[in-house]
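User:
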Amino acid sequence: MEVSGSVLQELLSRMTLLCDHLAGADNGKATVPYTLPQLLEIAVEHRASALNINVGAPPALRINHLLSLVEGAPLTNADCRKLLAPVLNADLKAQLYKTGQAETCISSSGAGFKVYLFLERGHICASFRRLRTDIPKLETLGLNGNLVEGILNQPMGLILLTGLPRSGKINTLASLISRINTTRLSRIITLERPIQFWHYSQSSAVLQREVGVDVPGFAAGIEQALNQDTDVLALSEIPDRETAAFAIRAATSHKLVLAVLDATSSVRGVERIIGAFDDDDNRKMLPIFANSLRLVLHQTLVNRSDGRGVIPAFEILVNNDQVHNEIQNGKVDKLAWIMQEQNMQTLGRSLGKLVASGLVTEEEALRYVSNPNELQYDKEALEASAYTDNATPVVEDNTDTPLMSWL
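Assistant: Predicted structure:
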């Protein structure tokens, strides 16, 4: 009788687990004088970014980019098994022996950790990477005006956050989630790949699900979230048309959806979504997209005038009647003109505001616009517009403050 490859793989996994059990029984007694929670507590106390556990060396902490060994003898195979037992459940162990690695997230000592389990010469090892909690405030980003905060308080709709890769979109997504978390009584479910920031539940309950670990994909995660009493849904990316369709439909079913999308401008972000539904069978999604969209934030990082890192500049495309009609018809040609005519916050206006406040030099700002006239900063016109926030980023003067790492 012919046996399929999947059956053979399952048998191999079971035999490996049995051998692992027998090997653990004959591998001597663990003598390690500390537990995993104690090690993670030390990591938190010393602000370590990672904890590494492997056979043949003491546990190692990554502190300020340098390794620091925990005092004591090198770990044995039995020591590693004992230390990692609290995180290595049956499912993770099966995955570890099937693929050579496994991932999960845990919380300990008031912090969150991403756990990477792997094999080395048949021994179980792990790296614990501390998840970030240095979430920027909306005031720091200059997004704390009535426009953005008002939409964050709405019960439903879609907010797109666009930008080039590593333009800080993930930091801004975390900031938007944090503001909802502290101001609304709601259930927030995030779908992230990977989880970068650790959110503590405050006024809201925040449930963070990692794609590929807790859920197979973004589309599946959105579909599941519809049955999980979700108020707010946050996506770290829109990888395909199926995810875009699920996200748009979720935004029309009493969910506020925040979603990150790679694009070179707010208009190009809208164009990418429209392009996903350009065939006859899917053009019916365009009116739904036009009805669900609330605004598009496009983020660009520019160098600060004081030489201390970068600061974000934002385009803010608001979905008013004119924008709605263009999107419904599958067009984007007039969107940039509408932004200009309606005094929405263009990139040039945002940069002009940063130049006027002294946070960015004019020379730096001119690198991001094609015409110097785009660096407009008409304070009265902007304050009179219903489609822009006039807040300016708040920058700490303390030179000892660590610079933000933008993702």
